[in-house]
Specification:
Layout (H helix, E strand, L loop, with lengths): L1 E4 L3 E3 L2 E3 L4 E3 L2 H9 L3 E3 L5 H5 L28 E7 L3 H14 L3 E7 L4 H13 L3 E4 L6 H11 L4 E5 L3 E2 L4 H6 L7 E7 L21 H10 L4 E3 L6 E5 H7 L4 H4 L5 H11 L3 E9 L1 E2 L3 H5 L4 H15 L19 E7 L3 H14 L3 E7 L13 E5 L6 H11 L4 E5 L3 E3 L4 H11 L3 E5 L1 E3 L1 E2 L8 E3 L11 E4 L1 E2 L3 E5 L15 H11 L3 E5 L3 E3 L19 H16 L5 E2 L7 E4 L10 E4 L10 E3 L2 H6 L6 E7 L10 H11 E11 L6 H4 L17 H10 L6 E10 L2 E8 L1
Parallel strand pairs: 6-7, 6-9, 7-8, 11-14, 16-17, 16-19, 17-18, 21-28, 31-32, 31-34, 32-33, 34-35
Antiparallel strand pairs: 1-4, 1-5, 2-3, 9-13, 10-15, 11-13, 12-14, 19-27, 20-29, 21-27, 22-24, 22-26, 23-30, 25-28, 35-37, 36-37
Length: 720
């Protein structure tokens, strides 16, 4: 049977990418269709495929496969989606089903405003298959208060506040995120069938309750990409985190349970210099008022009550609203343990874990085990996968749920009998802000193959034991404590191998150090107990061959940083806005993705990428014909960030068209303008008081400041 891949996967020793066509036997086809890995290549098989389907699984498909597959997915940055909930279960189910089917790269946050038992049961069941953050309130705090709680729980640079009586459509979020390319865009809204203002497609209003999912999808596919600056409303309200940092939260104290809070938020955002846009090409179906109906709130009366308050607020020049909402305090440390059978080893791991540690939240990610009944004896959260997705995807599933400052990732065959070992590691990391990871085993150097340097480990049967904490360059993946800074394991490694070295290097690039901790530990596989790779569900036929292939992936990706040895780390250099012309020896950073051409490449909005780098971690930054594309309002913030991440003595080399030549003004995409005098503001020796009054925090020494021609001003700044 011919299939088309919905996700990147590995099969028969080959890497299969999204959109690839492959022919497999019927048994494999059924399994892949059922688990959302692929869909039939021939539309004639579409209805036949439905009989293989089951309820929603972690991949986010409800398996009713049609023309809406991930091959058309619009890539975007990670978004926190906040859904306040109060009863209306049937509508909530429609919302969640469509969210999972049509959304990728998001963090889900649900705020339950003291709903009935049916909602509570549904949310508890949902957490088994879909990881999300849940805040449960003891009373209905209202929409604004719940949104503010979501802000506090958010870990992303974009937040979408979504009503629970909505239905999402293919690429709704990717289309909306495109709106942030517009001038000063801070808040975006989608098209819909029920809302005040221009966003409403009025022809759909009266029939919105009778439309099928296919009809809703057809509406979305007929819309063209277009944008309009206008007032937007809060049924699906996408906000850049930068706006919240500037103006604060929703004014729940003024607007109570709802109505008018988004209009007030829009007003304050505009005062702060942001714009609100209607993204016409994105469609989100909105039934409207379901929560108000459940709470027996008269919408018209609420509007009349809040309208005078909205008008009164317009006279208030103060636009910042403090977020003083209360969320359940998260004290426990998340512990992620992928599991594939091996019941006896898992029991030993859990027994030692709970016996020696307190204040932990254990997340078991099951990859298709036959028996999980024994887990009823433990206070653990379980994510269940129908098949073996591999340890890398399993860990990332757990990380999507984790919200503690530090996260433990460990195998299900590791026994550590040292009291409070997690607390000890966290205390060490708290005292040393430059530590990114701590683990049971690691190597002091890495040349051109795995396991190349001297190993230091607390595991029995090894001679070299750490005393306290000892620095290494890479850590083994059997047990690690991670500083939770949002990094994820690279799934290009497939099911296993190489992922632990890779995450180690990711922390290095961010400027962090790695350590091995002293403990009494056993790795049960080294006691002669069969490991997971001996399980028939492991899929990989030749584990040694697979390991060597992962090794090649790793060294191709990180070759520019190798060899690496404790105390002899290589310099990290960044090339900003380089596109397809990245300088050799530099990490390329650009809005557009060139990772298919360069392994050492980071895609994303450059200010956000820079924010992930640690203070004093970068040796050199290069920007050729890039800084003129930074909006004038963000130039100072950008220069402050460059100064922050550079090491003392590090340099920032710039090529920019000067205003004294034609190059500065001929390009319509240039939004900031520079000449040889511009850079003096970033040298405190010139006028410290004036620079600081502008919010400039830099103290660069100007090494070079020379106009080469009409198109190029060459500047080199060195951090004092």
């Amino acid at each position: 049977m011919k299939l088309i891949l919905n996700i990147k996967t590995f099969y028969d020793g080959k890497t299969l990418n999204v959109g690839d066509e492959i022919e497999v036997n019927e048994k494999i086809a059924k399994r892949w269709i059922n688990n959302g890995i692929a869909h039939p290549a021939d539309d004639n098989f579409k209805h036949e495929a439905k009989k293989y389907t089951e309820p929603l699984n972690w991949w986010g498909f409800n398996n009713l496969f049609d023309h809406h597959s991930l091959k058309d997915y619009i890539r975007h940055d990670r978004v926190s989606i906040v859904i306040p909930v109060y009863n209306a279960l049937d509508y909530l189910k429609k919302c969640i089903d469509s969210l999972v089917k049509f959304t990728q790269n998001y963090e889900l946050i649900i705020i339950d405003n003291n709903s009935d038992e049916k909602i509570k049961q549904y949310l508890n069941e949902l957490k088994v298959t879909l990881g999300f953050k849940l805040q449960t309130n003891k009373e209905n705090k209202g929409f604004s208060y719940a949104c503010n709680q979501g802000i506090k729980l958010s870990g992303c640079n974009y937040i979408c506040f979504l009503n629970s009586d909505t239905v999402l459509t293919p690429n709704w979020l990717g289309k909306m995120m495109r709106g942030f390319k517009l001038e000063n865009a801070g808040i975006l809204g989608a098209s819909t069938c029920y809302i005040a203002g221009k966003q409403c497609l009025t022809g759909l209003r009266d029939k919105r309750f009778n439309m099928s999912l296919e009809e809703i999808i057809d509406v979305s596919l007929d819309l063209k990409e277009d944008y309009e600056e206008t007032e937007v409303y809060g049924f699906c309200y996408l906000v850049k985190k930068e706006v919240i940092d500037k103006i604060g939260a929703f004014d729940y104290k003024t607007f109570g349970l709802g109505c008018g809070e988004e209009n007030d938020f829009n007003r304050r955002a505009r005062i702060a210099g942001f714009k609100t846009y209607w993204v016409k090409g994105a469609y989100v179906h909105h039934y409207g008022n379901m929560t108000f109906n459940e709470a027996k709130i008269d919408l018209n009366r609420q509007l009349k009550k809040n309208y005078p308050k909205l008008k009164a607020n317009e006279k208030n020049e103060t636009f910042f609203v403090e977020n003083d909402t209360i969320i359940d305090e998260v004290k426990k440390t998340d512990v992620i343990i992928p599991v594939l059978d091996r019941k006896d080893e898992t029991i030993k791991t859990l027994d030692s874990l709970f016996e020696n540690n307190t204040d932990i939240h254990v997340i078991i990610v099951d990859n298709g085990s036959d028996d999980l009944d024994y887990l009823k004896n433990y206070n653990v959260e379980i994510i269940k996968n129908n098949i073996n997705l591999g340890i890398i995807k399993a860990i990332n599933q757990g990380l999507a749920l984790a919200n503690s400052k530090y996260v433990v990732v460990m195998h299900n065959d590791v026994v550590i009998d040292t009291p409070n070992w997690i607390g000890n590691c966290i205390s060490f990391m708290e005292a040393n802000a430059d530590v990114g990871m701590v683990g049971l085993a690691g190597w002091t150097k890495l040349n051109n193959r795995f396991y190349d340097g001297r190993i230091i480990t607390s595991i029995e049967n090894y001679k070299k034991k750490p005393k306290g904490f000892e620095e290494v360059v890479v850590l083994d993946g059997c047990c690690n404590v991670l500083r939770n800074i949002g990094l994820r394991y690279d799934d290009r490694y497939g099911l296993t191998h190489g992922y632990d070295y890779d995450i180690s290097m990711q922390y290095h690039v961010q400027g962090y150090k790695l350590y091995v901790f002293e403990a009494s530990a056993r790795h049960l596989v080294e006691d002669g107990i069969p490991q997971t790779s001996k399980n028939p569900k492991y899929i990989i036929k030749d584990d040694n061959k697979y390991r060597l292939e992962r090794e090649r992936i790793f060294f191709d990706k990180w070759k520019m940083f190798l060899p690496i040895e404790v105390g002899k780390g290589k310099a990290i250099k960044l090339d900003l806005g380089c596109g397809a012309k990245k300088k050799e020896g530099f990490i390329g950073i650009d809005r557009f993705d060139y990772s298919d051409r360069y392994d050492d490449f980071i895609c994303g909005e450059i200010p956000e990428v820079l924010s992930k780098f640690k203070d004093n971690s970068i040796s050199e930054v290069h920007a050729s014909h890039f800084i003129e594309h930074i909006p004038q309002s963000k130039v100072i913030t950008f220069m402050n960030e460059i100064y922050r991440i550079l090491k003392t003595g590090g340099t920032f080399e710039i090529f920019v068209p000067p205003t004294t030549g034609r190059g500065a003004f001929c390009d319509p995409t240039h939004v900031s303008f520079w000449n040889d005098m511009s850079f003096g503001y970033y040298d405190k020796n010139n006028d410290r008081e004036l620079s600081e009054s502008y919010g400039i925090k830099t103290d660069f020494q100007i090494i070079e400041n020379k106009q080469l021609n009409e198109m190029n001003l060459h500047v080199i700044l060195r951090k004092r």
